Amino acid sequence: MIPWYHRSLDFEKLWREFPPAPDYFKTVYSMPHEELRALQSERFVRQMQRAWEIPFYQRHWGKAGIKRGDIRCLDDLKHLPAFSVHDLRDSIARHPPWGDLMGVDPETDDPMPLILQTSGGTTGLPRAMIYTPRDREVMNINTARRMYMQGVRPFDRVQVALATGLPNAGFLLRESLWKYTGAVPIITGTGNQTPSRRQIEIMRSWGINFFAALAPYLRHVGNVARDELNFDVRELKLKGLLCWLGVDDRKPIEEQWGTDVFDNYGTNEFGTVCCDCRYKTGMHVFEDAFVAEVADPVTLEERPTGEKGVLVLTTLFKHAAPMVRFNTNDVLSFIAGDCPCGSTHRRLSKVFGRADNMVKFRGVSIFPEAIGALVAEQAGSNGEYICIVEPPSASSRDEMTVLVEAAELSVEHSRLKAALSRRFHEALGVKLEVKVVGNGELSRLTGISDLMKVRRLLDKRKS
Ligand SMILES: [Zn+2]
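Above: query sequence and zinc ion SMILES. Below: predicted holo C-alpha coordinates.
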Protein backbone atom coordinates (compact mmCIF):
# COMPACT_ATOMS: atom_id res chain seq x y z
CA MET A 1 0.00 0.00 0.00
CA ILE A 2 1.37 3.39 -0.96
CA PRO A 3 0.06 6.16 1.29
CA TRP A 4 -1.22 9.00 -0.92
CA TYR A 5 -0.73 12.32 0.78
CA HIS A 6 -4.23 13.74 0.29
CA ARG A 7 -5.87 10.55 1.52
CA SER A 8 -3.71 10.43 4.63
CA LEU A 9 -5.56 13.16 6.51
CA ASP A 10 -9.11 14.33 7.11
CA PHE A 11 -8.39 17.91 6.06
CA GLU A 12 -11.82 19.35 6.93
CA LYS A 13 -11.48 17.99 10.46
CA LEU A 14 -7.95 19.35 10.77
CA TRP A 15 -9.07 22.82 9.64
CA ARG A 16 -11.83 22.84 12.25
CA GLU A 17 -9.23 22.00 14.89
CA PHE A 18 -6.58 24.44 13.65
CA PRO A 19 -8.37 27.04 11.53
CA PRO A 20 -6.16 28.62 8.86
CA ALA A 21 -6.40 32.36 8.08
CA PRO A 22 -8.77 34.14 7.86
CA ASP A 23 -11.03 31.83 9.94
CA TYR A 24 -8.45 31.74 12.74
CA PHE A 25 -8.85 35.47 13.30
CA LYS A 26 -12.62 35.15 13.70
CA THR A 27 -12.30 32.33 16.25
CA VAL A 28 -9.28 31.19 18.25
CA TYR A 29 -7.34 34.45 17.91
CA SER A 30 -9.61 36.35 20.27
CA MET A 31 -10.94 33.42 22.31
CA PRO A 32 -11.47 34.31 26.01
CA HIS A 33 -8.53 33.23 28.21
CA GLU A 34 -10.40 30.52 30.14
CA GLU A 35 -11.71 28.96 26.95
CA LEU A 36 -8.24 28.99 25.42
CA ARG A 37 -6.77 27.40 28.54
CA ALA A 38 -9.43 24.66 28.43
CA LEU A 39 -8.65 23.99 24.77
CA GLN A 40 -4.93 23.77 25.59
CA SER A 41 -5.56 21.45 28.51
CA GLU A 42 -7.68 19.06 26.43
CA ARG A 43 -5.04 18.96 23.68
CA PHE A 44 -2.26 18.58 26.24
CA VAL A 45 -3.86 15.44 27.69
CA ARG A 46 -3.99 13.91 24.20
CA GLN A 47 -0.42 14.97 23.50
CA MET A 48 0.67 13.22 26.72
CA GLN A 49 -1.08 10.00 25.65
CA ARG A 50 0.84 10.09 22.40
CA ALA A 51 4.14 10.93 24.13
CA TRP A 52 3.81 7.93 26.48
CA GLU A 53 3.94 5.66 23.39
CA ILE A 54 7.44 6.91 22.62
CA PRO A 55 10.59 5.28 24.10
CA PHE A 56 12.33 8.62 24.65
CA TYR A 57 9.65 9.82 27.09
CA GLN A 58 9.20 6.43 28.74
CA ARG A 59 12.88 6.62 29.66
CA HIS A 60 13.05 10.36 30.43
CA TRP A 61 9.96 10.46 32.64
CA GLY A 62 10.58 7.01 34.10
CA LYS A 63 13.97 8.21 35.35
CA ALA A 64 12.17 11.03 37.18
CA GLY A 65 9.78 8.52 38.79
CA ILE A 66 6.75 9.71 36.83
CA LYS A 67 4.14 7.12 35.90
CA ARG A 68 1.31 7.09 33.38
CA GLY A 69 -1.65 8.86 34.93
CA ASP A 70 0.45 11.15 37.17
CA ILE A 71 -0.02 14.05 34.77
CA ARG A 72 -3.75 14.69 34.43
CA CYS A 73 -4.10 18.24 33.14
CA LEU A 74 -2.17 21.26 32.00
CA ASP A 75 -1.61 22.44 35.60
CA ASP A 76 0.54 19.31 36.11
CA LEU A 77 2.87 20.24 33.26
CA LYS A 78 5.34 21.84 35.68
CA HIS A 79 5.93 18.47 37.39
CA LEU A 80 7.47 17.02 34.25
CA PRO A 81 11.24 17.28 33.82
CA ALA A 82 12.26 19.47 30.89
CA PHE A 83 14.75 18.31 28.28
CA SER A 84 17.15 20.10 26.02
CA VAL A 85 19.22 19.72 22.91
CA HIS A 86 21.73 17.68 24.97
CA ASP A 87 19.05 15.02 25.53
CA LEU A 88 18.29 15.02 21.80
CA ARG A 89 21.96 14.46 20.98
CA ASP A 90 22.13 11.69 23.58
CA SER A 91 19.03 10.06 22.08
CA ILE A 92 20.61 10.15 18.60
CA ALA A 93 23.86 8.64 19.93
CA ARG A 94 21.93 5.76 21.54
CA HIS A 95 19.60 5.15 18.61
CA PRO A 96 21.09 6.28 15.31
CA PRO A 97 20.27 7.75 12.90
CA TRP A 98 17.49 9.94 14.36
CA GLY A 99 17.11 8.99 18.01
CA ASP A 100 14.13 7.37 19.76
CA LEU A 101 11.93 10.48 19.98
CA MET A 102 10.27 10.22 16.55
CA GLY A 103 7.77 7.51 17.49
CA VAL A 104 7.50 6.28 13.91
CA ASP A 105 8.57 2.67 13.37
CA PRO A 106 8.75 1.15 9.85
CA GLU A 107 8.58 -2.33 11.42
CA THR A 108 5.20 -1.87 13.05
CA ASP A 109 3.49 1.26 11.66
CA ASP A 110 1.31 1.52 8.56
CA PRO A 111 3.10 3.46 5.81
CA MET A 112 2.49 7.19 5.90
CA PRO A 113 3.93 10.08 3.86
CA LEU A 114 6.91 11.45 5.80
CA ILE A 115 9.31 14.28 5.23
CA LEU A 116 12.57 15.15 6.96
CA GLN A 117 14.07 18.60 7.51
CA THR A 118 16.67 19.81 9.95
CA SER A 119 17.76 22.66 12.16
CA GLY A 120 19.69 25.43 10.46
CA GLY A 121 23.04 24.65 12.12
CA THR A 122 26.03 25.40 9.95
CA THR A 123 28.56 23.15 11.69
CA GLY A 124 28.46 19.38 12.14
CA LEU A 125 25.41 17.28 11.34
CA PRO A 126 22.21 19.30 11.85
CA ARG A 127 19.34 17.98 14.04
CA ALA A 128 16.91 15.94 11.94
CA MET A 129 13.14 16.00 12.43
CA ILE A 130 10.53 13.83 10.74
CA TYR A 131 7.04 15.21 10.06
CA THR A 132 3.84 13.28 9.48
CA PRO A 133 1.16 14.94 7.30
CA ARG A 134 -0.67 16.24 10.37
CA ASP A 135 2.52 17.67 11.92
CA ARG A 136 3.46 19.35 8.68
CA GLU A 137 0.00 20.75 7.92
CA VAL A 138 -0.33 22.38 11.36
CA MET A 139 3.11 23.94 10.85
CA ASN A 140 1.99 25.18 7.42
CA ILE A 141 -1.21 26.61 8.92
CA ASN A 142 0.66 28.44 11.72
CA THR A 143 3.26 29.84 9.35
CA ALA A 144 0.54 31.06 6.98
CA ARG A 145 -1.33 32.64 9.92
CA ARG A 146 1.90 34.46 10.65
CA MET A 147 2.12 35.84 7.15
CA TYR A 148 -1.53 36.90 7.16
CA MET A 149 -0.99 38.70 10.49
CA GLN A 150 1.93 40.55 8.90
CA GLY A 151 -0.12 41.70 5.91
CA VAL A 152 0.39 39.05 3.21
CA ARG A 153 -2.71 38.75 0.98
CA PRO A 154 -3.71 36.79 -2.15
CA PHE A 155 -1.66 37.61 -5.25
CA ASP A 156 1.10 39.25 -3.20
CA ARG A 157 4.53 38.26 -4.49
CA VAL A 158 6.69 37.04 -1.63
CA GLN A 159 10.40 36.58 -2.31
CA VAL A 160 11.99 34.09 0.06
CA ALA A 161 15.79 34.24 0.45
CA LEU A 162 16.17 31.22 2.71
CA ALA A 163 18.07 27.99 2.05
CA THR A 164 16.04 25.25 0.39
CA GLY A 165 18.11 22.25 1.40
CA LEU A 166 18.10 20.52 4.74
CA PRO A 167 17.12 23.49 6.95
CA ASN A 168 13.38 23.65 7.53
CA ALA A 169 12.53 27.33 7.05
CA GLY A 170 12.81 27.74 3.25
CA PHE A 171 10.50 24.84 2.38
CA LEU A 172 8.16 25.67 5.26
CA LEU A 173 7.58 29.14 3.81
CA ARG A 174 7.06 27.78 0.31
CA GLU A 175 4.48 25.25 1.47
CA SER A 176 2.68 27.69 3.77
CA LEU A 177 2.46 30.54 1.26
CA TRP A 178 1.30 28.25 -1.50
CA LYS A 179 -1.28 26.25 0.43
CA TYR A 180 -2.74 28.76 2.88
CA THR A 181 -2.23 32.42 1.85
CA GLY A 182 -3.08 32.81 -1.85
CA ALA A 183 0.18 34.73 -2.24
CA VAL A 184 2.82 33.64 -4.76
CA PRO A 185 5.99 32.24 -3.19
CA ILE A 186 9.09 33.18 -5.17
CA ILE A 187 11.84 31.06 -3.67
CA THR A 188 15.19 32.58 -4.60
CA GLY A 189 17.09 30.80 -1.82
CA THR A 190 20.23 32.14 -0.16
CA GLY A 191 22.90 34.29 -1.78
CA ASN A 192 24.63 31.06 -2.87
CA GLN A 193 21.58 29.98 -4.86
CA THR A 194 20.68 33.41 -6.26
CA PRO A 195 23.44 36.05 -5.95
CA SER A 196 22.45 39.18 -4.03
CA ARG A 197 22.56 41.42 -7.13
CA ARG A 198 20.14 39.07 -8.87
CA GLN A 199 17.90 39.04 -5.77
CA ILE A 200 17.64 42.81 -6.08
CA GLU A 201 17.01 42.71 -9.84
CA ILE A 202 14.18 40.24 -9.23
CA MET A 203 12.71 42.45 -6.53
CA ARG A 204 12.77 45.44 -8.87
CA SER A 205 11.47 43.74 -12.05
CA TRP A 206 8.87 41.37 -10.66
CA GLY A 207 7.12 43.84 -8.35
CA ILE A 208 7.88 41.96 -5.15
CA ASN A 209 5.65 42.94 -2.17
CA PHE A 210 7.36 41.10 0.71
CA PHE A 211 10.93 39.93 1.21
CA ALA A 212 11.68 37.11 3.67
CA ALA A 213 15.24 36.69 4.98
CA LEU A 214 17.40 36.57 8.09
CA ALA A 215 18.42 39.92 9.57
CA PRO A 216 22.12 39.85 8.54
CA TYR A 217 21.14 39.01 4.96
CA LEU A 218 18.64 41.90 4.83
CA ARG A 219 21.42 44.27 5.85
CA HIS A 220 23.76 42.74 3.30
CA VAL A 221 21.29 42.99 0.40
CA GLY A 222 20.55 46.63 1.29
CA ASN A 223 24.27 47.39 1.23
CA VAL A 224 24.88 45.56 -2.06
CA ALA A 225 22.04 47.56 -3.67
CA ARG A 226 23.55 50.82 -2.45
CA ASP A 227 27.25 50.08 -3.09
CA GLU A 228 27.16 47.97 -6.25
CA LEU A 229 23.92 48.96 -8.00
CA ASN A 230 23.63 52.54 -6.79
CA PHE A 231 20.06 51.71 -5.82
CA ASP A 232 18.14 52.62 -2.66
CA VAL A 233 16.02 49.64 -1.53
CA ARG A 234 13.48 52.06 -0.02
CA GLU A 235 12.35 52.71 -3.61
CA LEU A 236 11.01 49.15 -3.73
CA LYS A 237 8.20 50.26 -1.40
CA LEU A 238 7.85 46.77 0.04
CA LYS A 239 4.81 46.12 2.22
CA GLY A 240 7.11 44.49 4.77
CA LEU A 241 10.09 42.32 5.58
CA LEU A 242 9.35 38.86 6.95
CA CYS A 243 12.27 38.42 9.26
CA TRP A 244 13.90 36.23 11.93
CA LEU A 245 15.36 39.00 14.03
CA GLY A 246 16.92 36.88 16.72
CA VAL A 247 19.06 39.26 18.79
CA ASP A 248 19.26 41.81 15.97
CA ASP A 249 17.81 45.28 16.27
CA ARG A 250 14.69 46.07 14.26
CA LYS A 251 15.17 49.80 13.80
CA PRO A 252 18.31 50.04 11.63
CA ILE A 253 16.85 47.50 9.18
CA GLU A 254 13.53 49.35 9.02
CA GLU A 255 15.41 52.58 8.31
CA GLN A 256 17.53 50.97 5.64
CA TRP A 257 14.53 49.46 3.82
CA GLY A 258 11.91 52.09 4.64
CA THR A 259 9.34 49.48 5.66
CA ASP A 260 8.21 47.34 8.61
CA VAL A 261 10.31 44.46 9.88
CA PHE A 262 8.07 41.68 11.23
CA ASP A 263 9.69 39.23 13.60
CA ASN A 264 8.89 35.61 14.34
CA TYR A 265 10.39 32.75 16.32
CA GLY A 266 10.48 29.00 15.73
CA THR A 267 12.66 25.93 15.42
CA ASN A 268 12.56 22.86 13.21
CA GLU A 269 11.00 20.83 16.04
CA PHE A 270 8.09 23.29 16.40
CA GLY A 271 7.72 25.27 13.19
CA THR A 272 6.50 28.84 13.74
CA VAL A 273 5.75 29.33 17.44
CA CYS A 274 5.03 33.05 17.71
CA CYS A 275 5.15 36.18 15.60
CA ASP A 276 4.53 39.91 15.51
CA CYS A 277 1.16 41.18 14.43
CA ARG A 278 1.12 44.42 12.44
CA TYR A 279 1.30 46.43 15.70
CA LYS A 280 4.72 44.94 16.56
CA THR A 281 4.02 44.88 20.32
CA GLY A 282 5.70 41.49 20.87
CA MET A 283 5.25 38.07 19.33
CA HIS A 284 1.85 36.40 19.83
CA VAL A 285 2.21 32.69 20.65
CA PHE A 286 -0.06 30.33 18.68
CA GLU A 287 -1.52 29.08 21.93
CA ASP A 288 -3.89 26.56 20.36
CA ALA A 289 -0.78 24.70 19.14
CA PHE A 290 1.79 25.37 21.87
CA VAL A 291 2.18 25.93 25.58
CA ALA A 292 4.95 28.44 26.25
CA GLU A 293 6.64 28.90 29.62
CA VAL A 294 9.32 31.43 30.58
CA ALA A 295 11.35 29.88 33.36
CA ASP A 296 14.38 30.36 35.56
CA PRO A 297 17.37 28.90 33.67
CA VAL A 298 18.50 26.87 36.71
CA THR A 299 15.41 25.89 38.71
CA LEU A 300 12.98 26.03 35.73
CA GLU A 301 10.45 27.73 37.98
CA GLU A 302 8.04 30.02 36.16
CA ARG A 303 9.17 33.65 35.86
CA PRO A 304 6.66 36.48 36.28
CA THR A 305 5.51 38.42 33.20
CA GLY A 306 8.14 40.93 32.20
CA GLU A 307 11.07 39.00 33.66
CA LYS A 308 13.59 37.25 31.47
CA GLY A 309 14.00 33.48 31.49
CA VAL A 310 14.48 30.50 29.22
CA LEU A 311 11.66 29.63 26.85
CA VAL A 312 10.28 26.13 27.52
CA LEU A 313 7.88 24.87 24.86
CA THR A 314 5.31 22.08 24.57
CA THR A 315 3.53 21.07 21.37
CA LEU A 316 -0.21 20.32 21.33
CA PHE A 317 -0.52 18.69 17.91
CA LYS A 318 2.40 16.46 17.01
CA HIS A 319 2.32 12.79 16.12
CA ALA A 320 6.01 12.31 15.28
CA ALA A 321 8.29 13.65 18.00
CA PRO A 322 5.82 15.45 20.24
CA MET A 323 7.79 17.97 22.27
CA VAL A 324 6.86 18.14 25.95
CA ARG A 325 8.76 20.76 27.97
CA PHE A 326 11.63 21.35 25.62
CA ASN A 327 14.06 23.88 27.04
CA THR A 328 15.05 26.00 24.02
CA ASN A 329 17.78 27.71 26.07
CA ASP A 330 16.74 30.99 24.38
CA VAL A 331 16.15 33.84 26.80
CA LEU A 332 12.95 35.87 26.29
CA SER A 333 10.22 37.36 28.48
CA PHE A 334 6.44 37.57 28.40
CA ILE A 335 5.07 41.05 27.69
CA ALA A 336 2.35 42.53 29.90
CA GLY A 337 -0.84 44.19 28.71
CA ASP A 338 -3.13 43.81 25.72
CA CYS A 339 -2.35 44.34 22.07
CA PRO A 340 -4.55 46.68 19.97
CA CYS A 341 -5.11 43.83 17.48
CA GLY A 342 -7.49 42.20 19.97
CA SER A 343 -5.72 38.87 20.27
CA THR A 344 -5.95 37.09 23.63
CA HIS A 345 -2.79 35.10 22.91
CA ARG A 346 0.16 36.03 25.09
CA ARG A 347 3.13 37.85 23.62
CA LEU A 348 6.84 37.11 23.88
CA SER A 349 9.64 39.63 23.63
CA LYS A 350 12.36 39.28 21.07
CA VAL A 351 15.22 36.88 21.84
CA PHE A 352 17.84 38.38 24.18
CA GLY A 353 20.38 35.56 23.69
CA ARG A 354 21.29 32.03 24.71
CA ALA A 355 21.11 31.22 28.41
CA ASP A 356 24.48 29.45 28.45
CA ASN A 357 26.21 32.58 27.08
CA MET A 358 24.64 35.01 29.55
CA VAL A 359 27.10 36.95 31.69
CA LYS A 360 26.24 38.97 34.79
CA PHE A 361 28.06 42.27 34.77
CA ARG A 362 27.37 44.93 37.43
CA GLY A 363 23.94 43.46 38.06
CA VAL A 364 22.92 43.47 34.40
CA SER A 365 22.51 40.33 32.30
CA ILE A 366 24.48 40.71 29.11
CA PHE A 367 24.52 38.43 26.11
CA PRO A 368 27.59 38.48 23.84
CA GLU A 369 25.27 37.84 20.86
CA ALA A 370 23.49 41.13 21.56
CA ILE A 371 26.84 42.92 21.57
CA GLY A 372 27.66 41.14 18.31
CA ALA A 373 24.46 42.41 16.72
CA LEU A 374 25.37 45.99 17.69
CA VAL A 375 28.89 45.57 16.33
CA ALA A 376 27.56 44.12 13.06
CA GLU A 377 25.32 47.09 12.38
CA GLN A 378 28.16 49.61 12.93
CA ALA A 379 29.76 50.98 9.77
CA GLY A 380 33.55 50.72 9.99
CA SER A 381 33.63 47.37 11.82
CA ASN A 382 33.84 44.03 10.05
CA GLY A 383 31.62 42.39 12.67
CA GLU A 384 34.41 40.53 14.49
CA TYR A 385 34.52 41.01 18.26
CA ILE A 386 35.25 39.43 21.63
CA CYS A 387 34.18 40.49 25.14
CA ILE A 388 36.71 40.26 27.97
CA VAL A 389 35.61 40.60 31.60
CA GLU A 390 38.32 41.48 34.15
CA PRO A 391 37.84 40.74 37.86
CA PRO A 392 37.58 43.70 40.26
CA SER A 393 40.89 44.92 41.70
CA ALA A 394 41.75 47.02 44.74
CA SER A 395 41.40 50.20 42.71
CA SER A 396 38.47 49.43 40.41
CA ARG A 397 35.28 47.47 39.87
CA ASP A 398 35.07 44.65 37.38
CA GLU A 399 35.48 45.83 33.80
CA MET A 400 34.18 44.56 30.51
CA THR A 401 36.12 45.43 27.38
CA VAL A 402 34.78 44.75 23.91
CA LEU A 403 37.53 44.29 21.34
CA VAL A 404 36.34 45.06 17.83
CA GLU A 405 38.07 44.71 14.48
CA ALA A 406 38.08 47.67 12.08
CA ALA A 407 36.95 46.73 8.57
CA GLU A 408 39.86 48.38 6.78
CA LEU A 409 42.94 50.54 7.28
CA SER A 410 41.14 53.80 6.49
CA VAL A 411 38.74 53.43 9.43
CA GLU A 412 39.44 55.97 12.16
CA HIS A 413 39.72 53.94 15.37
CA SER A 414 38.77 56.74 17.77
CA ARG A 415 35.52 57.45 15.90
CA LEU A 416 34.53 53.82 15.77
CA LYS A 417 35.32 53.47 19.48
CA ALA A 418 33.21 56.50 20.40
CA ALA A 419 30.27 55.38 18.25
CA LEU A 420 30.25 51.88 19.72
CA SER A 421 30.62 53.06 23.34
CA ARG A 422 27.58 55.28 22.84
CA ARG A 423 25.57 52.49 21.17
CA PHE A 424 26.40 49.92 23.91
CA HIS A 425 25.38 52.32 26.66
CA GLU A 426 22.15 53.19 24.87
CA ALA A 427 21.16 49.59 24.07
CA LEU A 428 22.47 47.69 27.11
CA GLY A 429 22.32 50.29 29.86
CA VAL A 430 25.93 49.81 31.04
CA LYS A 431 29.22 51.45 30.17
CA LEU A 432 31.61 49.10 28.41
CA GLU A 433 35.20 49.77 27.41
CA VAL A 434 35.80 49.53 23.67
CA LYS A 435 39.11 48.80 22.00
CA VAL A 436 39.42 48.87 18.22
CA VAL A 437 42.05 46.65 16.59
CA GLY A 438 43.04 45.89 13.01
CA ASN A 439 41.38 43.47 10.60
CA GLY A 440 42.16 39.85 11.57
CA GLU A 441 43.84 40.65 14.90
CA LEU A 442 41.23 38.88 17.02
CA SER A 443 41.32 35.54 15.24
CA ARG A 444 43.72 34.06 17.79
CA LEU A 445 41.38 35.00 20.67
CA THR A 446 38.08 34.09 19.01
CA GLY A 447 39.35 31.02 17.17
CA ILE A 448 37.33 32.14 14.15
CA SER A 449 39.36 29.92 11.80
CA ASP A 450 38.10 26.88 13.72
CA LEU A 451 34.41 27.49 13.03
CA MET A 452 33.19 24.75 15.36
CA LYS A 453 33.44 27.00 18.38
CA VAL A 454 33.98 30.72 17.92
CA ARG A 455 34.73 32.31 21.30
CA ARG A 456 32.97 35.61 22.01
CA LEU A 457 33.49 35.87 25.75
CA LEU A 458 36.49 35.56 28.02
CA ASP A 459 35.36 35.85 31.64
CA LYS A 460 38.52 36.15 33.69
CA ARG A 461 36.52 36.34 36.92
CA LYS A 462 35.94 32.59 36.58
CA SER A 463 39.59 31.56 36.22
ZN1 LIG B 1 -1.32 41.98 18.27
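The two ends are 62 Å apart (CA to CA).
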